[in-house]
Amino acid sequence: MPKKAKKSFQSVKGMADILPQSQPYWEYLRQCVHKTAQAYGFERIDTPIVEDEDLFKVSAGETSDIVQKQMYSFKSKGGDNLVLRPEGTAPIMRSYIEHGMLNLPQPLKLYYMGPFFRYEQPQGGRYRQFYQFGFEVLGEESPVVDAQLVNIFINIMKEVGFKNIEAQVNSIGCKECRPKFRSALVAYYKHNINKVCKDCRKRVKSNPLRVLDCKDEKCLQLKQRAPQTLDYLCDSCQRHFKYVLEYLDELEIPYALNPHLVRGLDYYTKTVFEFFLKEKDEAQPEGAEAPSFAVGGGGRFDALGDVIGNKKVFSAGMAGGMERIVYFMKKMEIKVPQGPQPHVFIAQLGDMGKKKSLKLFENLRSKGIRPVEFFGKDSIKSQLRIADKMGIKHTLILGQKEALDGNIILRDMESGIQELFPMDRIVDEIKKRLKK
Ligand code: HAM
Predict the structure, then answer these.
(1) Protein residue closest via CA to atom 15 of ligand 1
(2) Does ligand 1 come within 6 angstroms of the Cβ of 321?
(3) Is 50 exceeded by the pLDDT of residue 115?
(4) What superfamily would CATH give domain 344-431?
(5) Structure pTM?
(6) Quick one: what percent of the chain has pLDDT higher than 90?
């Protein structure tokens, strides 16, 4: 049989490897999220990556892009229709209802972090597998929560090191007042149907609010004069939004009112918001569209409990896109802590030297000293070269003779001075030198 040509494997389109050199950025971002979550009393929750397909059909909406175009759906061997989760809010609500968390003291403040999947057209900042952190407050009606969530997102960004964070806010009303807005919007777009893109011609009929999300130049133009949600809010939604804005003012959070912000998921009610990071010195020209690169978004979703489990659960939340945030961390040269540097290099020579070095490594490690080794190498010269390159100050050299005599050489890599020590004193000596 002729041999098949070997396939050259690559990561799947839209799914990226996070390489070691990027890990310090990710680790730092995760730390900032954990730290802020704890400071505001949020508890961690993790839900499975795979969920029932219907969970997102009922929550994000049958006509949302997520459900219509972006779900990784498959049938399990048992015949269940499953999906790789496209977002985190519906699973959290599912878990909250499933585990009877309604009976715990309310509100429940939960946060999570992990991978999500959307079959999108990959482009800058848009992936098919991406990571989000998310915060959800379940069982609380007060508008103070909406403002707090905006505040928490901004504080995570500040903790990371960003200074220029823009929050855009809007209210899209509730099931009482939104139909009126929807009718006005449909009337406006029907009147201008020849001025919208091909996709939006369909959207006007199926899901008119989505037309406001369209990034097509023609649709962006037309949006400028489209009806605004705020003009159609009922008294209750108006009052709620007024308080949200007052609390944001009280917290001294700068925000921009974006009367056309609607968000791409159907479960939102009342407040919605999105976050943008502005690059250094890049002043936004007046009246220009905000960068299309939202690093986070969220809002209130008071009706979600009802569609998922027939429960009234007043809730709000937000999520951040971690790839996008890491992109800006690198772009803006934010300094992040590097992983802990090794304290001491162990260089070994000969069979006996290698064997004793294995034990020495464990001994140092158990005393809180971080050793580093290249036990596969046999030449002292090449090991010292590596130690030098790594910028390590102390190297321990264990050759055949030292191993036999129960000694070890300690080399100061800066001065090149080498001293001989009995093996049983070396840990104390290293500790002493690390303190200096
Ligand atoms: P979302 O706006 O769809 O909201 O996603 C939140 C963030 O995830 C976005 O602002 C963006 O930074 C990032 N993101 C979304 N899609 C992609 C992608 N394809 N590639 C890279 N990053 C992406 C939600 O998912 C809601 N669950 C947020 C929420 C929580 N609402 C209430 N609670």
Answers:
(1) 321
(2) yes
(3) yes
(4) Anticodon-binding domain (3.40.50.800)
(5) 0.92
(6) 86
